[in-house]
UniProtKB/TrEMBL annotation:
<dbReference type="GO" id="GO:0009414">
    <property type="term" value="P:response to water deprivation"/>
</dbReference>
<dbReference type="GO" id="GO:0009409">
    <property type="term" value="P:response to cold"/>
</dbReference>
<dbReference type="GO" id="GO:0009651">
    <property type="term" value="P:response to salt stress"/>
</dbReference>
<dbReference type="GO" id="GO:0005544">
    <property type="term" value="F:calcium-dependent phospholipid binding"/>
</dbReference>
<dbReference type="GO" id="GO:0005886">
    <property type="term" value="C:plasma membrane"/>
</dbReference>
<dbReference type="GO" id="GO:0001786">
    <property type="term" value="F:phosphatidylserine binding"/>
</dbReference>
<dbReference type="GO" id="GO:0009408">
    <property type="term" value="P:response to heat"/>
</dbReference>
<dbReference type="GO" id="GO:0005737">
    <property type="term" value="C:cytoplasm"/>
</dbReference>
<dbReference type="InterPro" id="IPR009118">
    <property type="entry name" value="AnnexinD_plant"/>
</dbReference>
<dbReference type="GO" id="GO:0005509">
    <property type="term" value="F:calcium ion binding"/>
</dbReference>
<keyword id="KW-0041">Annexin</keyword>
<dbReference type="InterPro" id="IPR037104">
    <property type="entry name" value="Annexin_sf"/>
</dbReference>
<feature type="binding site">
    <location>
        <position position="179"/>
    </location>
    <ligand>
        <name>Ca(2+)</name>
    </ligand>
</feature>
<dbReference type="InterPro" id="IPR001464">
    <property type="entry name" value="Annexin"/>
</dbReference>
<dbReference type="InterPro" id="IPR018502">
    <property type="entry name" value="Annexin_repeat"/>
</dbReference>
<keyword id="KW-0106">Calcium</keyword>
<dbReference type="Pfam" id="PF00191">
    <property type="entry name" value="Annexin"/>
</dbReference>
Length: 244
């Protein structure tokens, strides 16, 4: 994973996520949210070259159908359609639409409206929209989602919104779960460390220590057997986005 070019690594992660018995939608969402549009294009090209398949089509073909598929395809479309500049006016308008077709309507969230916004806006624009939502209504959009009917779409949307709004907290929790959860997920641990090392690994570790009371490298030493790539994983935690 470390030796691959970033876009080839993401293409491999996407393929592995799709091939699991239970699709790893979180890994796919992290790719589409955490990468620039130019990088997404390279990922799709690498995916096609390595696996002779189209990434978007493989997502469409997943069975049984899952709400994450709709969200992922909307995010994929946004990388093709959005403009580089962000707009405060658009953010406020989108925030009001999210409210009026969700909590403001006293009903379930209208999927079609959410998917339309996700498909037309860049991730920075979506982040501004969600910030505007909190400014206008006094609480996070995630709280509005919680007040809904707890359907599968709402659950998926809540995870996506958290990944957009607060990546350090999202990934700190993902790292903790990958080691201390009911079932450890070493693949998730490696994936997060390698993919975020040049972005915000230092901030993720600060959040991790504040949230769980321990340095992340100490948790690795405590939880992973000696020799099981432990030293390499610890070395990754010492690299920060400013020095890599």
């Amino acid at each position: 994973m470390w030796m691959l070019d970033p876009y080839e690594r993401d293409a491999t992660v996407a393929k592995e996520a799709l091939e699991q018995n239970e699709t790893n939608f979180e890994a796919l969402v992290e790719i589409f949210i955490g990468r620039k549009s130019s990088h997404i294009l390279l990922i799709k090209q690498a995916y096609q070259k390595r696996f002779r398949r189209q990434l978007d089509q493989d997502i469409i073909n997943l069975e049984p159908l899952h709400p994450y598929q709709k969200i992922l395809l909307a995010l994929s479309t946004s990388h093709k359609a959005h403009h580089a500049d962000i707009s405060q006016h658009i953010a406020k308008c989108d925030a009001r639409r999210l409210y009026e077709t969700g909590e403001g309507s006293r009903g379930a969230i209208e999927e079609v409206v959410v998917l339309e916004i996700l498909s037309k806006r860049s991730i920075p624009q979506m982040k501004l929209t969600l910030s505007s939502y909190k400014h206008i209504y006094g609480y996070d959009y995630r709280k509005s989602i919680k007040r809904g009917n707890y359907g599968e779409f709402e659950k998926a949307l809540k995870m996506v919104v958290k990944c957009i709004c607060d990546p350090p907290h999202y990934y700190a929790k993902a790292l903790h779960t990958s080691i201390k959860g009911v079932k450890s997920h070493k693949a998730t641990l490696v994936q997060v460390l390698v993919s975020r090392i040049k972005i915000d690994m230092d901030e993720i570790q600060r959040v991790f220590k504040k949230k769980y009371g321990k340095d992340f490298r100490d948790v690795i030493n405590e939880s992973i057997p000696c020799g099981d790539n432990r030293d390499f994983l610890v070395s990754l935690t010492t690299r920060t986005s400013s020095t890599t």
